[in-house]
Here is the input.
Amino acid sequence: MMAYTYQNNSTFQSGMPDHIEAEVDLKELVNSILGYKKSIIVVTFVITLFSIYFAYFSDNVYQADLSMEVQGGLVQQSSANDFLTNAMGVKSSLANTIELLKSRYMAQKTLEKIYIGNRYFIKEDYRKIELYKRSPFTVKAEAISQELIGREFTLQPIDEKKFRLKIEDIVVSEGKKNNYDHVHEYGSLISTPYFRFTVNKLGGLDKRDFFFTITPNNMMYTMIQSSLSIGLSDEKSTVLKLMYRDNIPERAQDILQAISETYAEQSVFYNSSSAERTLKFIDEQLKAINEALQNSASNLRDFKSSHILIDLGSKASTVSQTLSQYETQKYEIDLQENTLKHLLDYIKSNKELIGVDMGPVTGSSMAITTLMGKLQEAYTYRSSLSVDFTEKHPSMIKANEQIASLKSALKSTVESALRSIAQRKANVQQIINTQKATFETLPEEEKQLAQLNRSFLVNEKIYEYLLQKRAETSILESATESGVRVIDSALTGDAPIQPHRKVMVIIGLVVGLLIGLLQAFLRFLISNKIHTISDIENNTMIPIYSVLPLFKGKKSLYEEALRVLLTKFEFSSDRPKTIMVTSSVRGEGRTTTALEFAKVIAQSGKKVILLDMDMRSSNVNKKLEIQNQIGMSTLLSGKNTFEEVLQCTDHGVDVVVAGPLPTNPYELMMSQSLKNVLDELMKHYDYILLESPPVGVIADALVLMRICDLSLIVFKADYSKKTFIKNVNRFVDEHELKNVGIILNALELKKIRPWIKKK
Here is the structure.
């Protein structure tokens, strides 16, 4: 079955339904979307073509990898007894270490080691090839305007000494541009209002164009930061994996190597700086103790040379040794106390703890050492952030809050340590006082000798202690250990990691297809045209009597659909004899539908006549290629008889054409003559088909619809608009018309089949 016909053509309520459930058959929807297959193919092809272009003309991207073990933070431990260097020697959190490595500060230091702001190219086979270290010349830029950053300069060698420098479209004023084209010598300063640099020749330049770009440091920092990525080998490891991506594999390796070397050098720098400060402190103490030691030794010699006593007695010797031991302890305690007080003063003054001479602090608290390390780390991290962010940035605010919290904790810890030291100092002082009381009971000469001997021993022990600490610190000052160990040097794979050309083409194809389908679907949604049977069903309750397929060389299917429609009429209890065929607008195929339906009726053995009632714009005579001098207009006006206007076709269909345009077509249709003609024709014909003007355009169609048994309104798929359906709904409702049906014309066969199965 090639068409669906409404099986109950009796009276019905026309117009829009109260509630229409839009049921879109999936196959029908697919077929509708595929109706835009040309646009789908075009969109898919264009996007795929772009993906091919970008896949094969994009620069290769290589990745260099470097593994590095970080045993400490930015600096290492300088002295076991140095608060500052101890603090620096505490291992930084790896998270902060990663942030430091990716910071703008580290990018700056890296660019000081390896400058990559200038790039040099040649063009071969429509592609740019970057020369990197193979460039036969270098450019030393001093200044460049914002407009020319990243713009290509063209260098054309002339001879061994001269070259031509060109750049186009330099903005000189609003709306005005100028081209730069001048000859210069290698090694000479080129100074213009827009740039200032020197081109230095490194080797022989052949006679071809070279190109270069200049990018200032502030932009290179960002480029390095964005191209660098850092990760951990595993959660428990202190090994960092540095990865850098660049279109030049050698440059990617160089940059990674420079970053690791820069980090190690900065660590050594802080180590040596911290040790230098400690040495300065120790040297000051040594100078004072050395003088005291020389004086005490001299006094002891003088006393022994002027007195008979050579050695102390047993009691005096014991007291003297005990006193010297505890006085040495008291000196060390005083040194610790003074250093802690010095640290506390810096904390209270809100100064950064960088550059504080801490000195040797024996027996310092591990809690203080740890807090100092975290605080120093926090200062370093904030310093790296300050290059990129203002104080109001959330990252800076968080860093400052962390510093404030650590300083508060450190202040409390130092104050607690000072109280503990004060107690130790009091205990040692009590022992010293007890021994001094015993010392006072000694004979005078023996007491003087013991005192001089004690002073010498104390100064000697302190001097030896300081010399030991100075030796330790000197070793650290000269040490080059950074706490950073490169496990795997920077290495770039042979194959680029990007672009994935085959994948890009496949993705382009898929994306193109999806976008093509999407645009087709959107066009389908926003389209006001009738594309499917559902477009009619969802917009009206007027029954669909038939769906006629698009010809496309298969007229037999079209005729079969009309034959099915005839069969329905034949088996209907109230078979219509007068059938009007009209449309919503012109061009929807009402004339063809009426003619072909008349032929099908004639082929079935039934007598049929076709009346062309469109007296304003006759079409039947044009389709049949017959005369139109007389017809319905002359018949209804009484100028001709029925026998005179009747014409027969080769298909067995009797036809009365419209005739010449009358002055009053509407009055003719309203006349009794038309009713009389129809009454007479019903005596001789099984079916009377009336081809009518479009519904709602003129009143002629309304007259005919009131006198015919059935009115069929033709809509054309992919031509008629959904608004036409609404107009027909309104027309039918306003005039309370009955026995109205719809024929959907020229619908693609693939859109009909799912609908037939559904029905």
In short: DSSP finds 23 helices and 21 strands in the chain. Residues 36-58+499-524 form one domain.
